Amino acid sequence: MRLRRLAAMVVCAGLSAGAAAAQSLWVEIDLSDQQMVVFDRGAAYVWPVSTARAGKVTPVGGFTPYLLERMHYSTLYDNAPMPWSIFFHGNYAIHGTTAVERLGTPASAGCVRLAPENARVLYEAVQAAGLAETQILIRP
Description:
L,D-transpeptidase catalytic domain-like, 2 helices
């Protein structure tokens, strides 16, 4: 809910987030709320996500993505499909999921899962902004 209020304030005020001003694209993920806020050139999106379930870990901190893959298949998890993958730390990525009913709850092995249509929007925004101009912040 904190992120939703922040996004609403940014949109209503017509301002960009302070940290977002330094980057073309700013992605903020709150593990406790299981939500993502994306700030993209004055627009803000708020989406539910699924991050690490019990016994697994989603890394916390600031990251710059290093690889985009339109369709990736996990070599760690039985070739599970990972559409619209944005890799940001080792094998960790933000990507689309078919388990949309689990969004908003911890359910992944550590990646950040999004509804496929939202993952595509984010993927295309990262493509447009460039990897170096994209910042991902993951908070506990």
